């Protein structure tokens, strides 16, 4: 369906073409828009002003074109922004979590964009502000807080920030008594750190020039960071690395992993000079995570064919694999997602029959019980506890119609206490909405779960517009949780739907495996099948479906645009990973080597090359009549580099048929996560929603 009548007739930016080609496995590709990739991208991530003028000029022209085509929605965007902001409690505050003599939490002040971190006396009292994000952000076009962690003696705060959007974080130490930062200041870190047991120093991850977490250091408070002790260096660029600690403050855990293999190294938090001790050497396909358990570590693992994971234990002083013993056996179809250990209990979050559930296990007796919930589809999260020796753990609950709720749960008495229900200041009546979980048959007979919500007054007769969201990669499950933003569409007659497609773990680990590498096409075919099922069931019609996805979900958007452009009335691709083959062939980029297990290594394998080439959106742009497309990106994004969507948009305009426009909005002051403030981000959502309303003819609704 041509939508040109909805947009003014304005000439789109036309990117120059400079011949460029590459050859792998005897296959030669031509990429005339490769010049949009800044040769000095590492420097640009740290200082955007270093971007080449020719590239900057083109990106600014794209922004001007997008602004012109969406100019008639400016007032609508303001209305949408106001509505979404009105559903946010401006002076919201978390429920403080107890730790020793204090309870720690975060809050926002009226009009504030950034969080504040505070503490109160353990059982309540006056708040003491430890860190005010709004003050720290003053004068900066971009600012995002990273990790914030108090020392166990409650005297210092370890915190970090990113002021470019490139995710190079600066770590600082704040003296809580004076409220001043110490001289210790470490740049180019991963954004968090872990205190040593005596609180005289901390462990942290440093990023290299290619934005990879390659080294773990220990920094002694008051010393020169150039003298920090190297604890561990990872030689394989294909692995991510992080450092964490236990709540008992006894162990430092160095986690090393790619998307299918993991490894841990341990050292005592009381001895920062010790050499890290290997738990189980990396073995391709073997995954495991450690959780404290006093005299044991609990180990969540897929060892021995436990595809949906099992729980083992091992003595803390010798947790090598030979000493692992089974605690919770593997049960096919029950995916164990995470575990939290307490002195007397072991809590696990798992997914069975497509829904999450929490199971509490008494460590001594092995007796287990479930925490029950009533709704048809819902989302759960484990918040855990700062404390290890406690009977109380915290969890969160929501559904597409039920605002988020925070509970404390007494594992001994089985009593749950509602601490907080998400407040919607402008009002919310769950009775006005209908939520459903339907199953859409895919191309091979698999049933794809779909969570959806619509207003009770919306006619389900094929006339309603629909925003269909999808992701489908890395095993990430998109929860059926409460989303105040989408109500701005739902209240205007939209059906809002989430497609739980293969590539996620929505139906177990096999659901993930059946949507990666050689099976990646299932992800795209599932999403298309969901769109067509919603039409068949008269929830909507093809020309009224707007598809939305971001990052790897943006790759999904590019793929479905190539495969079935007629099935959608519009596409919103946020920070879209659309130039998959080129990126996976460039081992200098931050995420390329660690991503090979997810997508395949086209450098080493001709089969992987051909598999990726067959679906990579940029490589498969053709002459189809694409629906209107809005692409959104950030200049300093280290995860999906800005040139991927820039090249994709240029190629779409060159090759597509029809007159439907392709719009490109690039934030010149942000990265992968978009604008950093909680309200600034709403402006980006308002643009996306205004586009959806515009292309479905609901702009004035």
TrEMBL record:
Stretches the record annotates as Disordered: 1-26
UniProt xrefs under InterPro entries: AB_hydrolase_fold (IPR029058), Pept_S9A_N (IPR023302), Peptidase_S9_cat (IPR001375), Peptidase_S9A (IPR002470), Serine_Peptidase_S9A (IPR051543)
Domain Peptidase S9 prolyl oligopeptidase catalytic: 481-698
Domain Peptidase S9A N-terminal: 15-421
Coiled-coil zones: none
Gene3D superfamilies membership: alpha/beta hydrolase (3.40.50.1820), Prolyl oligopeptidase, N-terminal domain (2.130.10.120)
Keywords: Hydrolase, Protease, Serine protease
Similarity section: Belongs to the peptidase S9A family.
Protein's name in the database: S9 family peptidase
Higher taxonomy: Bacteria, Pseudomonadati, Pseudomonadota, Alphaproteobacteria, Hyphomicrobiales
